[in-house]
Design brief:
ATP binding, four-stranded antiparallel beta sheet, alpha/beta, ABC_transporter-like_CS, 7 helices, 34% helix, binds adenosine-5'-triphosphate, Rossmann fold, six-stranded mixed beta sheet, transmembrane transporter activity, 2 domains
C-alpha cells in the first residue's frame, strides 16, 4: 500500500529531516511510527499526504508514484487518504454533523448522500446521538472521535494519524486505538505516529522507529 524507496527530506537546503528511508507497509496492515521528538514522524506522514515533497527517492501509494501525480489529480489522491491530527482541527462554529460533512461538501456530494455517509461515520465512532452538538460541548476523547469520523467519511483505503492520543488520558487513548483497530479489521491500512510507547507495547502491531530521520528499527507484530 505504501512503499518508500530511498526517500530523503531536506528542509531549507541543508537540514536532513529524513534520510535513506526504505520500507513498505502492506495493504490491510496496521503500523505504528515511533521516535523521539523531532525524529521525523510528522515529516514522514506529510510526505504521504502530499503536504511535503521528498527531496530524494520516491513514494508509491497503492502502486502509484505520488511524486508524479498531476496537480489536478492531487485532490482525488487525498480522498483516498484519511488524516487524523492530534488537535483534531474541528470548526468551532459548526456542529458535529457539519464538521464531518465538510470533506463531502467540498467534493460536491449531494446533501442526501452527505447525510447518509456522515451518519454512517458517526455511527462507527459511537457519536450518532451527538450530531447536533458543537465541538466545545464534547469531551476531548469525543472530539477526537469526530476527527476520526471526518477522516473516514470518504472510506479511505489508507488512514494516517499524527499523535491522535496526544492530549488524552490512558483510558481514552486506549479507546481511540481500539477504534483504529476496528477500521483496520475491515480492511483499512492504518499508520499512526505516536510517542506513547506504553500504549503501543500493549497493542501488538508492527512498529517502525525513527531516530534523527533514519529508520533504526522495524519490529513485527508479536
Ligand atoms: N517545514 C519545516 N522546515 C524546516 N524544518 C522542519 C520543518 N518541519 C519539520 N522540520 C524539522 O524536521 C525535523 C523533524 O520534524 P518532525 O516534525 O517531522 O518530527 P516529529 O518526529 O514528528 O517530532 P514531534 O514528535 O516533536 O512532532 C525537526 O528537526 C524539525 O524541526
Amino acid at each position: 500500500m505504501i512503499a518508500f524507496e530511498h526517500v530523503g527530506k531536506r528542509y531549507g537546503g541543508r537540514f536532513d529531516a529524513l534520510a535513506g528511508l526504505d520500507f513498505t507497509v502492506e495493504r490491510g496492515e496496521m503500523a505504528f511510527l515511533t521516535g523521539h521528538s523531532g525524529a521525523g514522524k510528522s515529516s514522514l506522514l506529510k510526505l504521504i499526504m502530499l503536504l511535503e515533497r521528498p527531496s530524494r527517492g520516491r513514494i508509491l501509494v497503492a502502486g502509484h508514484d505520488i511524486g508524479r501525480l498531476h496537480v489536478s489529480q492531487v485532490p482525488y489522491y487525498r480522498r483516498q487518504v484519511g488524516v487524523v491530527f492530534q488537535d483534531h482541527q474541528l470548526l468551532s462554529d459548526r456542529n458535529i454533523f457539519h464538521n464531518v460533512a465538510l470533506p463531502l461538501m467540498i467534493q460536491g456530494v449531494t446533501p442526501r448522500e452527505q447525510a447518509r455517509r456522515v451518519r454512517a461515520a458517526l455511527d462507527k465512532v459511537g457519536l450518532l446521538h451527538r450530531e447536533k452538538a458543537l465541538p466545545v460541548e464534547l469531551s476531548g476523547g469525543e472530539q477526537q472521535r469526530v476527527g476520526i469520523a471526518r477522516a473516514v467519511v470518504n472510506k479511505p483505503a489508507l488512514l494516517l494519524a499524527d499523535e491522535p492520543t496526544g492530549n488524552l488520558d490512558p483510558a481514552l487513548s486506549a479507546d481511540i486505538m481500539r477504534l483504529f483497530e476496528d477500521f483496520n479489521r475491515i480492511g483499512t491500512t492504518v499508520m499512526i505516529a505516536s510517542h506513547d510507547l506504553a500504549l503501543i507495547a500493549g497493542l501488538h502491531h508492527r512498529t517502525l522507529e525513527l531516530a534523527d530521520g533514519r529508520l533504526i528499527a522495524d519490529k513485527d507484530a508479536r
